[in-house]
Amino acid sequence: MRIRLDLNNKAHRQRIKYVVGDYVMSNLAWFLFNCVRWLAGTVVGWPYLVSYLKSDMVLLGQLFFPLLMMVTYAFSGYYNNVCRKSRIQELLTTFASSGINTLLIFFMALINDVIGVRSADYKMILILWALIFGLVYLVRAIITNIASRQIKSRKWTFPTLIIGSGSAAVAFANKLNSKRQFSGHDIKGFVNIPGENPVKGNPLPLYELDEVKEVCEQLGIWELIVVPSREDTHRTMEAINKLFHIGLPILISPEYFNKMQTPVTISDLYGEPLVNISRSSMSDSGKNIKRAMDIVISLVALVALLPVFAIVALIIKRTSPGPIFYLQERIGLHNKPFQIIKFRSMVQNAEQAGKPQLSSDDDPRITPFGRFMRKYRIDELPQFWNVLKGEMSLVGPRPERKFYIDQIIPFVPAYALLHQVRPGITSMGMVKFGYAKNLDEMLERVKYDLMYLNNASLINDLKILIYTIKIVFTGRGM
Predict the structure, then answer these.
(1) Tens of pLDDT along 412-429?
(2) What would the DSSP string read from start to end of 451-462?
(3) Per residue in 164-212, pLDDT tens?
(4) Of 254, 276, 298, which one is at a domain's C-terminal end?
(5) Are residues 340 and 434 in the same domain?
(6) Which of 47, 145, 163, 285 fits a disulfide with 226 by CB distance 3.0 to 4.6 angstroms?
(7) What is the count of structural domains for the chain?
(8) Whole domain around residue 97: which residue ranges?
(9) pTM to 2 decimal places
(10) 3-state SS, one letter per residue, for 333-385
């Protein structure tokens, strides 16, 4: 546990270095640009540089624009993962965010500074971009290079468990340790996947799957690498499904990932090509923007729909005995359970048989008003509260109950991968297929959710939201 706290502190300090470096360099870039503007004669009425730099307009910009740049850097996802950065990704991210900041500043402050020569205007824009990009990237590259040297010299290591105990797992661990350039993985032991034959004489500890969480807490484990020795996708995916709730990165080789009925998207390269299956293929910037949209839209929706909520609650109370809201445990991000909230559309105690039951169009348990709500998806509206709390997203795979997940995984092992993203109020499966009435239909709908996972993007989220709105207003919810 102490190791994990130490690594978290290192990561926190690394993030602070990037943030402080970006802020200082953004201030310097804007200051130097104002000097260049004055020297180029693009500002009038200020015969002396010092007096110009002390003017209220310049001082206000010196305060505001670096903060604006920091917001762009944060949304770019640069601060999401600070421990082991890709140099190419760092360059591209800095290039793009600097360009965005330049355009924002131009349209907010510089667009009216016309000096009569269009080429000179373009030159000033390029100078601003060059200053922001050059200064910010310089400091970022220095900080990243120092961290990279610490990892390669084994001064900064990341405790790792290998999920697997057979010959393939041991060979993989030896391969990592024998590499000339150290990738940072400090192998602390192996975890036995049921059905495997552990290698005898292995000097590192061997743990069972059920004790992984406790071991991770005791040893301060940072990452889990899945290296199965058998061609048993079902057993491996069952093991992976039990790892999501730990909340650690789960890495797997591209070769094995390709066998799990889903395309390969290599998002992280740590010396050895590994796929991080605990995070979606959506970019860090996309994730940040998506979460920001979730918060803003759900907050606005909860406030704007208060009159609708009041009317619906009154009708439910008048037409059917029982509570207004219906809470049900579902499995969400990282395989963690949460209570989904809906307007009650069925009679009270609808599942008295003792096990979960799926509904159908002519299900007698659905109340008359409940049928109307389900047709227009009104019963789903309270889930904006789940979105605001961070348990769900506006768009994502629909969350299921553990009872049905345990039945789906034997048929579609890749279903476990859906737990790498927040479940959604609406999904590709819901707009393309709708409610599932039995296990076969659930298996069919899962294909759409996996399709969404492999093509997750803000554009596709927008398309699904538009389809959902169309379904709501045309009453095709059931």
Answers:
(1) 877 888 888 999 999 988
(2) HHHHT--HHHHH
(3) 888 888 888 888 877 766 778 889 999 998 888 888 888 899 999 989 9
(4) 276
(5) yes
(6) 163
(7) 3
(8) 2-152
(9) 0.82
(10) HHHCEEEEEEECCECCCCCCCCCCCCCCCCCCCECHHHHHHHHCCHHHCCHHH
